[in-house]
Amino acid sequence: MKSWNFLWIILIIAIWIVAYSIVNDPYNQAKRDKTFLGDKDAEVTIIAFIDYSNENSSISEESMKSIRETYKDKIKFIYKFYNYSDLSFQLAMAAECAASQQKFERMHNLLFENYYNISNVNIYSFATQIYLRQDEFRICMDKQIYGQSISSDYKIAERLKIKTIPTVFINGQRIEGLNNLSVYSEIIDSEL
Length: 192
Hints:
Blueprint: H1 2-23, H2 26-31, E1 37-38, E2 44-50, H3 55-71, E3 75-81, H4 86-99, H5 104-113, H6 120-129, H7 134-142, H8 147-159, E4 167-170, E5 173-176, H9 181-191
Parallel strand pairs: 2-3
Antiparallel strand pairs: 1-3, 2-4, 4-5
């Protein structure tokens, strides 16, 4: 009887260790995001670590946009924020605050289209352009409602040892830096 109790204890500990490692795996943490583009049940999940004030992220976004247009509901696209500066943090906050009003993609596009000449003033101008409810947006920005979530993205990036922006994961396969659209498409096609 004692040997069975011992085996049950060992089994429970093993299950707990496996469950803990799955839950705390940074890639799995990155996949759990309420803000995404595409189909939540898609076969392919793309996670892109970006910085709205980074030129390489902006250049890469052209490929990401083509992927979203080409594969539409075959992919789930998650953006994670890797912030180099206070401005990067504010830009990520603007995207999240816009997402709270179901306008993430529109703000996201404006931020990338204007990355080279962006400031806190532009952020509020963009909010007006995409018809956000200004009072809600200003409160969201001023109180940094999504600050913890944005900081969490950065911590996940650190745990994944991300050093290059953009870094993209396609169903867990890591692709760093600027790449041709065909590199991404080849991987996506092999996953479908």
